[in-house]
Amino acid sequence: MRNMNESNITEEVLNTIEHTQSPRLKTIFTAMIRHLHDFAREVELTPQEWFTAMDFLYRAGQISSPQRNEFILISDVLGVSSLADMLSDRGADGATETSALGPFFVEGAKMLKPGGDLIESNEGEPGVVMGHVCDQKGQPIEGAMLEIWQTAHNGLYENMDPNQREGNLRCRMLSDKDGVYRFTTVKPVSYKVPEDGPGGDMLLSMGRHAWRPAHIHFKLSAEGYRPMATQLYVEDDQYIDEDAVFGVRNSLAVGFKRNDSADEAAKYNLQAPFWVVEYDFRLRPA
Ligand code: BEZ
Ligand code: FE
After folding, report:
1. Tens of pLDDT along 192-238?
2. Do 28 and 96 fall into the same domain?
3. CA nearest 169: which of 213, 218, 119?
4. Domain with 190 in it: what CATH number?
5. Structural domain span for residue 173
6. Ligand 1 centre distance from Cα of residue 158 (Å)
7. CA–centroid distance, residue 103 to ligand 1 (Å)
8. How far is CA 137 from the centre of its chain?
9. Would you say the CB of residue 73 lies under 6 angstroms from ligand 1?
10. 205 CB contacts (<8 Å, ≥6 apart)?
11. What is the tens place of the pLDDT at every residue in 49-59?
12. Is residue 195 part of a domain?
């Protein structure tokens, strides 16, 4: 191992991982070492530049906490999280596409019955979101668990904002016997991902912004089906085609349709004008 040079060091390193026990881990280590070495050769990486990269990761670790994982944000803004979602969606054949879970999910939100209300005392434009949870062929699934969360009018999630009460704009709900889910809420707004850490520095140095188009998060699970996380996006949001974390898919950009009928609004205990979103989720078998 002494006669190493820039051409043979990669093979030397690869030789040392030959006894990796897990075949999958061996595949991953091999590709990672190859790509990292090729990357260094391609950009003619200097030791100072590599130190800057290591310092960047160190700072990401320092700003991370149980409430905030900067590494996930970095992966998101580089499109790697979305790419992994896309790879796992292969062969989905009509099932709902995945879109980042994101860092703001909280377990164990309050249970609402279908038709329940998330608006409570929130400011914003009222509306109703409804549809079915189905299998890939469109057959309704009874008792599917939906976990739902979104930001308030100020673009903040409840757990990032001391001025919101705990659990605000979050709920869980079981689809009814016809697979139906429904809840009233306020229209989500576009917001920025956290910019005060190395993830934000990276966005800035790339000349990019931190905005995400307005969306509502859903986590879905049902006995016999593959659990998934996705988001419904406001189709005409100004950031719909420039999401900082590459989460938008055509099939997830939905119309928030304005309805001016007082009679229709009353059906949902709302006042006109209100907006309506209809969306059927389709789950893959486990
Ligand atoms: C979110 O939508 O909550 C989110 C997703 C990825 C990164 C940051 C935030
Ligand atoms: Fe979000």
Report:
1. 999 999 999 999 999 999 999 999 999 999 999 999 999 999 999 99
2. no
3. 119
4. 2.60.130.10
5. 80-283
6. 14
7. 6
8. 25
9. yes
10. none
11. 999 999 999 99
12. yes
